[in-house]
Amino acid sequence: MSYTSRRYDQGESISCAFYSKIGACRHGEKCSKKHIKPTSSRTLLLANLYQNPKMNKSENEDSSPQQLQETLDLFYQDVFVHLSRKCEVASMIVCENENNHLNGNVYVRFYSENDAARVNQELNQEWFNGKPVHSDLSPVSNFDEARCRAYDTDTCERGEMCNYMHLREPSASIMDKLTKGQEKKYLSRQLEKLKAQLAEFPPPSEKPNGDDDASSNTTATTTTNSLLSQLE
Ligand SMILES: [Zn+2]
Ligand SMILES: [Zn+2]
């Protein structure tokens, strides 16, 4: 092997593909490849935030699929609403892998890097279930590429050795409620902004008298205002 190609090989192997694609690698700090932390990202990783009942079961007790789903639904709602109050959430996923590096990981994606940076700082001051929250900017940009497709159809044979995300999604009705609730909240904020902009229009009395254009403008503004109030 020539010096040049060896250098090329080393270059290829410098960054850890698991860390950059999945946001976590089973070797953690001891990984022989580099975990290159992003300096800005739209994605946050809240490591081990979800208390996965599959990991915390006592010896004789196995949660039924329904119990697992209910636990996840409650958790998901709680965290989504909390995050959505801080900033509009683009998407959020929860891992239930039964290994240390992916277990209970929550990944949340926002619409801008600035939003993610702000929420990241806030979260690191907070506690959840009696434990400090660990939030970090994550390099993961595509949740679809990071998820284990076999797990989705209950056919992943790698079990805890699997390095891809084993996701449990909230029930469709819950997700629907959360999405609609968030849409409403951020739409009404946009309406507030629009109203504020409309309020900056000069009041009708300042318009020259007898000007036909001015009177039609006034009508238009009044109509817009009444439409806006109906939308609320
Ligand atoms: Zn690694
Ligand atoms: Zn898997």
TrEMBL record:
Zinc-finger found in the keyword field: yes
Compositionally skewed regions (Low complexity) per UniProt: 215-232
Annotated SUPFAM superfamilies: RNA-binding domain, RBD
Keywords for the protein's UniProt record, in alphabetical order: Metal-binding, Repeat, RNA-binding, Zinc, Zinc-finger
Annotated ranges, domain RRM: 42-140
UniProt domain C3H1-type: residue ranges: 10-38, 142-169
Zinc finger (C3H1-type): 10-38, 142-169
Region described as Disordered: 194-232
Name recorded for this polypeptide: Splicing factor U2AF 23 kDa subunit
Taxonomic lineage: Eukaryota, Fungi, Dikarya, Ascomycota, Saccharomycotina
